Amino acid sequence: MELHCEEIPARFLTPLWENFVHLLEDKLEAWFPTGDSANYRKNAIDNSTGLYSPRKLAWRLVGLPAVQPDQTETQVGPPQRMCVGEDGKPTIQGLKFAEKWGMDFSAVRFEQPAGKKEPCAVVTLTKQGRPTVDLLAEALPGLIAGLHVPKAMRWGNSEFEFVRPIRNILCLFGDQVVPITVDGVTATNTTWGHRLYHREHPAPVVIATPGVYESALETAGVAVSVEARRTRIAQQLETLAAEVKGRVVADAELLDTLAEIVEFPKIVRGDFPADFLELPKEVLVTSLREHQKSFCIEGPDGALLPCFLTAANRTDDPAGFVKAGNEWVLKARLYDARFFFAEDRKHPLSDRLEKLMALTFQRELGSYHDKTGRVVALVKHFASRMSDDTDHIDRALEAARMAKCDLRTLMVGEFPELQGIMGGEYLRHEGAHEEVWMAVKEHYRPVGADDAIPGTPLGCLLSLCDKLDTVAGCFAVGLIPSGSKDPLALRRAGQGIVRILWERGWAFPPADLIAAALRVVGAKATKPTAETNEALMDFFRDRVAYQLELAGYAGSVRRSALAAGWEDLVDLKARCEALSAFAEDTRFASLAQSAKRIGNILKDEAPSTDFDDSLLAQPVEKVLAACLMKLELAPDQASLLHALANLAGPLEAFFNAVMVKCEDPALRAARLSLLHRLRQAFLRVADFSLWQ
Amino acid sequence: MHIQELILRLQRFWADRGCLIGQPYDLEKGAGTMNPLTFFGALGSKPWNVAYVEPSRRPADGRYGENPFRVYKHLQFQVILKPSPAKVQDLYIESLEALGIDLTKHDLRFEEDNWESPSLGAWGVGWQVVLDGMEISQFTYFQQVGGLDCRPVSAELTYGIERICMFLGGYDNIFDLVHGEVKTDDGIFPVTYGQMRQREEFELSAYSFEHADIDLHRTLFDAFEKEGWRLLKDQGHFLSAYEQALKMSHTFNVLDARGAVSTTERPGIIKRVRDLACACARAYLEHQEGAAVPAEDNGKVGAK
Questions:
Q1: Domain boundaries, chain A
Q2: B251, B98 contact by CB (below 8 A)
Q3: How many angstroms separate the CA atoms of B123 and B118, rounded?
Q4: pLDDT (tens digit per residue) in B135-183
Q5: Residues of B with CB below 8 A from A328's CB?
Q6: Mean per-residue pLDDT, A400-428
Q7: For residue B302, which residues of chain A lie inside 8 Å, CB to CB?
């Protein structure tokens, strides 16, 4: 089936296509409940992955039977004693049961179904399978209307709502048209190809069977598989970039977009005047991407070449109009960008500091000027903890003061994604210290999970303080992310903070960060400090837990290491690294069991830390006491873990042989103390009771 | 192609396809949509096809006549087709051919671009039409105007006249465009867009950014609002009241260009324009077709 529409927005194509696959799967399961449906479903997905283009959404199912198999169904009625009289004849109730299912009483059997205490009346109904084409004809219009369309529209006189007007429906079962009508459009075995194709071929394209769908459309100028278009685009990009001895500046998202906005891709390479190359690379890449959906080409040294690549929705560019047109528009855009770049530099960046007062950061937290003040205070606090080089601290403060100024520049007004980058570039042009402009330029990083943290220590510090102020400030005024709601992307900011600490190996405990941040938020807070503090600690603990996941540690390592303390990230990282070496070690599984037993035994006890080991009577506990010494004296994580691994056997032996809570109170106290000390030693690295 | 030739061809094309040829409305406005031919025409159940040129003022876009691509005032060619015809895209493409664009040699795309006018309580979905990478038109299916659902739905086509002329002629400067030719006994004199408009751009930009009296405009805004509500409430006059809403809108745009509107103030001011415009829309519909049917009473079908 193909829905031929007016141009569907690129961002809706994949979700709509996938949504319909799920709706179809549910139907198939209802129609073919015998287990075979798995095959159809698999086929449905394998054979029609991404059959869509700007004007088409299409799905093909392979392997459907012509007729639904007959289905039998068992109906259970009243107990036998109520259906058959003492004379052996059917009672009224018995007759009624048979009548209800349209059967003669003779077809009623008496069996004891599972869950019943006595034999009951049972009939088996046979439901004749229906032709698949009838099932499809009945179901498809409802499925189409039931598609989830995020921004639905009406058109013409109709009340029907869809993503864009549906202008044609192709619906085939084999070579047979499935008779459906949606909003007055009746399905046929024809569709429309590319608009250009139909200038010479006024008749619609006939699709004889679903199998020839792609090839028939290819002839009519539409490559209907999104994957095919993506592959062709990627190949052409590479070839055309190689022709000018360059390579494409990769952008997977842009590639996806191009594949979704053309029906037949032709990549066109155009040129722009080389003097625009004086603009920062980021400006060119962003301007080309945002305004013209174009790729940049870079030379072997990473510098951009004065040309671009973009997709046209046709097979060729016979008169060179496509190239010339795109070049013309791009020139206008770059002219704008150069105008912004020149205008912005007429005044030093610092002139914008005052203007930040008129730019609201958040209602309760005030302007970006207020925010800058807080970030400066935070940077001052932490920079002086890291260094006593006053020049360095001064540079850190300068970067913090300048960080948000570019929000008032024309360039960032035009391209918000260049925030930070432009501030850095403008400072560089003004001759600022490299540390300062680099820090400003990178202080929004990491902008996502795939992005790196800032490359310089100062950039990391500024990024950390900026994000910390955002997170703590928002929490302090009650803007706390919950469930799927995180409109201010605080989790991403929090993750950025944790990543910087983690990757830099900075030993700032979250409690310190929070305290410092809440101090600078001060009276702007609308929530009690204790409450905010607790919420922030929970928040950071979650972020740290997620960081361990991102770092790829096994579940056992993460759970047990976190439970033994998470606030010292440097220590946590060292413990996770050490534990990972033992992730598969079976001795640790045994250790986990013992750790649980220790936990249970000590649950209601308050053992003392000291014990007299001469009280210990049995050899196995003496061995254990000796092991404890080794554990406690272990100089580093690795040797501690080796000692722990070697403890698994003795512990098992101990629990097999020794009754901890014995009658003798002194011995009992000594054993409890021994276990307590062992647990303390464990907890230096991990809570092994959570290992499994 | 000369600007006037482009306009004439578009008027001829759409008149031949059953559109009334309207005229610009003689009040300052930011877009052709604000012309009552569209604002009221898109409401109600009666068929309505109309096409007209609308000079559109965007004070914040003023560049003193120095920027070759951006101007304070530009010309829109506006087409309203109600109900939207099934072949509306084909009609639009034919209109481009009527301008001499040979589509066998160009790349034409419809890229998602949804339109919203918060000050008119109007929104629709549609595309920007892109020719060889250049946006030449805006194509919208109106869903709501004046806060009211459009039944039936109108298609709105808006051509950027100067852009299309520049693009077709390969001009790098809007002021070099030729508006038309003056023919006299002494000869033929082409008149450029710059000759006709550059000084106007300079003065109106200077006005918007430097000379407009902020206090006066604030007072005017309040006065137009008061006047509009008085006309609507006391007289039930939605057309004269709507004119006041248009004046409010332009006054706001001037204040905005003067940098006199803070970000926090902005939504509130826009809402004041919208409230009056929406009230006018309701009064119009009531006058035309009796009391409006509340939206929730209409059964909806189709995907949500």
A1: 2-67+131-219, 71-127, 226-344, 352-551, 570-690
A2: no
A3: 8
A4: 999 999 999 999 999 999 999 999 999 999 998 888 989 999 999 999 9
A5: 132-134, 167, 170, 172
A6: 93
A7: 145, 152, 154, 159-162, 183
Confidence of residue A34 (pLDDT cuts 50, 70, 90): low
Domains of chain B are 3-196 (3.30.930.10), 212-289 (1.20.58.180)
The DSSP letter of residue A67 is: B
Q: Sort residue A309 into left (φ over 0), alpha (ψ -120 to 50) or beta.
A: beta
Instruction: Specify the amino acid at residue A73.
Output: E
Beta strands in A328-473 (DSSP E): 360-362, 366-367
B143 vs A153, A156, A157: nearest CB? A153
Q: What is the CATH number of domain A570-690?
A: 1.10.730.10
Chain B residues in contact with A326 by the CB 8 A cut-off are 132-134
Per-window interface: B 31-70 vs A, CB < 8 A: 67-69
Cβ neighbours of B228 (radius 10 Å): 28
Residue B86 contacts A, CB cutoff 8 Å? yes
Identify any residues that bridge with A181 across adjacent strands, giving them in sequence order.
A186
Q: Which two tokens stand for residue A34?
A: 């015998």
- Candidates B69, B127, B263; nearest CB to A7: B127
| Cα distance between residue A402 and residue A140, in whole Å | 59
Closest residue of A to B90, CA-based? A195
Q: Which of residues 183-242 of B touch A (CB under 8 A)?
A: none
CA–CA separation, A442 and A341 (whole Å): 19
User: What is the β-pairing status of strands B20-21 and B73-82?
Assistant: unpaired
CATH topology of domain A352-551: Hypothetical protein af1432 (1.10.3210)
Closest CA to B150 of B83, B88, B85, B87: B83
The C-alpha of A273 sits at a distance from chain B's nearest C-alpha, in angstroms, of 14
B262 has a chain A CB within 8 A of its CB: yes
